[in-house]
């Protein structure tokens, strides 16, 4: 059984917690890239990593959808320091991601993802962009990024 996940920050390809590389290092089944997608939300900047805050005002966050083996969810929980039932920076939730598919049109996929605990929003800066990687690459270099 496969699970779909939406990643928007450091778990994306080429980022510091690249999901495919993390799976390989642990000897876990490879994450299968499904495609670029968006989910309802806005981004906030914690310096070296982003947070996603779900919103229902039309804003969307860009990222990628992967199909993963359930064993990879435990690794993602570890990377995001998520422990069910405990206070954590990230929470694992389900969302509907809209895949961008120029050949077949957009389609919706139920995914697991990791928005931040809303109580942490005051510790971050709102990001006007919808894509963490593009935003991070375009901002002036700062310590810790």
TrEMBL record:
Keyword tags: Transferase
Keyword Transferase: yes
InterPro entries, sorted: AIG2-like_dom, GGCT-like, GGCT-like_sf
Domain Gamma-glutamylcyclotransferase AIG2-like: 5-132
A single MF term (Gene Ontology): transferase activity
SUPFAM superfamilies hit by this protein: Gamma-glutamyl cyclotransferase-like
CDD domains to which the protein is assigned, alphabetical: GGCT_like
Protein name, entry field: Gamma-glutamylcyclotransferase
